[in-house]
Amino acid sequence: MGTPGTPTTTAARLAAATASTGLSAAELGVARMYDIPHTSGCAGTAGTLREVEVLVKDLQRVGGETTGFGSPAHEEVADEHDSTVRSLLATGASLVGASVTAEYGATVYTEPDLVGGGPGPVNPVDPRMTTGGSSSGAAVAVARGIVDIAHANDGGGSIRVPAAAVGLPGLKPAHRVFGSGAASRALPNPAAQGFIARDLTLTARAYDLASTTPVRPGLRLGMSTVPFHGDPGQAGPTAVDPRIATATTASAALLVTHPQVSGVVPVDAPYPVERFAVFSRIMAARCAGLPDPLGPMPGWLKEQGRALAASDIEDAAASLRVLPGDIERAWPEVDVVVTPTLACAPPPVGAFSSLALAGSHRLDFLAQTAWTPWATLWNLTGWAALSVPLVAAAPGQWPVSVHLGAVGDRVDAATLLALGAHLQDAVARMIGSGDADASWFTVAEPGNIESLRYRPVVAGHTHGHSHDH
C-alpha cells in the first residue's frame, strides 16, 4: 500500500513527514514507535492485515511496551498483550507503535498539553482546527500518510468524530453493549474496537469486509439534521451550521439515486432529550475508577461517577437495555438514518478545554455533545455506523461528512460502506459535470461552538458560566 515513490515503512514515513512539516511525532499523531514490531509470531498467518504496519491506540497494553493512556502521569509497561492487541495480531498486522489519544479516551478533543503531555496532533486540513477525539492520533497519522490503517476505538464517536475532523471515513462496527452470562451484570460498554483507514476500500479491508457488496432492493432511508442529544435545560435543540445541514439534505437525495434505495423520509429524534442522561451516567460510572492524577474532564467525570448511587447506575443500565427496541419502534419504516456527523466544522484548538479550565466542566460536556449530537445513539445501541466525507480533504477546505447509521440489524456494515461509496461517487460526478461546486461541500474556517446554542437557559437568560455541582 502507499503512493509510489513514498517510503514504505512507518518509521521512514514518520521521518519524512517530520522533516517536511517540521512537526514532532506527537503532532503527527504518533505517541511512540516500538523498537521491534509486534507480530503474531506464527509463520504464514493469513489474516486480512497480514504484514500491514498498524499503530495501536495508546489505551491498549502491548506486552513489553509503554502505554500512556493519554498522559505521562499514567505511563506503565505492560506485562502482556491485552485482548484487543491479541485480536489485532490475529489479523496478521504488524504493530509498530502507538497513536496519540485523549486521556483515557474521555473527550472528543485531544489536547495533551492539559496533562503535561506536550503538543497534540495537528489537523492537516487546517492547523487551527481541533482534530477531535479520542482516536485523533490514529486519524491524523492516517491523514498524514504515516500509516494507511490505524487501530482506534469508539465509545461515543471516537472513531467517527476524529475521522470526520481530518476528512477521512470512519466506521464503528456493530458491537455488544451488554455481555453474556456473568458479564451481562457488568457495566454496559458503549465502546467498539475498530480502525481508521485512508479510504473506504481500505476501511473494508481493515474490517475484513467485501470492498463491494450488493445492496438489497427496497432499502429505506430516514434523514434528520435536527440534533438528537442535548440538555433538558436548553430552550430547544442545539443548532447546526446551515452549510452542513444543506450538504446532508443533498446527500440524502443523492443516496436515493442508488438503484436499490426506495426513498427517503424525514425522521424525528427517537426519544426525548432527557434519555441522553443514560449515556452521561454510564460514561461517568465507567470513569469512577480512573487513577489520579487526572486532567480536567476525566477528573470531573470521575467525580460524577463516584457520586452516583448504585440505583442510578442500575436504572441507566435498565433504560439502555430497552433503548434499541424503543428506537426501532420509533423508526419502523427506515433501515438507515442519514444525519450530519458534526454540527459545525472542527472548532479551534482549546475551544472545549478552555471551558473546563475555567471550572465549567458541565459546559465543556454540553459543548462536546452539541458538536456531536448524533453519533452516540449508535454507541448506546451497538448498531453499526459510518461517517463519510463528501469530498477529499484539501488544505484550508474542511470536507463535510455525513453519518449513515444502521437501524437494528436491518443492514450491515458492508451495506453502509456501499452506500458511502455511492454517495462519494455521486458527489464527484456532480462536481465533474459542473452541476455542483466542491465548495458546496466544504467549510473554509473553524467552527464556532457558541453558534450551536449549547448553554442552558434558565429564567429567560442563557448561562454564561457553569461551576458544576
Automatic annotation (TrEMBL):
<dbReference type="GO" id="GO:0004040">
    <property type="term" value="F:amidase activity"/>
</dbReference>
<dbReference type="InterPro" id="IPR023631">
    <property type="entry name" value="Amidase_dom"/>
</dbReference>
<feature type="domain" description="Amidase">
    <location>
        <begin position="43"/>
        <end position="211"/>
    </location>
</feature>
<dbReference type="InterPro" id="IPR020556">
    <property type="entry name" value="Amidase_CS"/>
</dbReference>
<dbReference type="Pfam" id="PF01425">
    <property type="entry name" value="Amidase"/>
</dbReference>
<dbReference type="GO" id="GO:0016740">
    <property type="term" value="F:transferase activity"/>
</dbReference>
<dbReference type="InterPro" id="IPR036928">
    <property type="entry name" value="AS_sf"/>
</dbReference>
<protein>
    <recommendedName>
        <fullName>amidase</fullName>
        <ecNumber>3.5.1.4</ecNumber>
    </recommendedName>
</protein>
<keyword id="KW-0808">Transferase</keyword>
<feature type="domain" description="Amidase">
    <location>
        <begin position="307"/>
        <end position="404"/>
    </location>
</feature>
<comment type="similarity">
    <text>Belongs to the amidase family.</text>
</comment>
<dbReference type="InterPro" id="IPR000120">
    <property type="entry name" value="Amidase"/>
</dbReference>
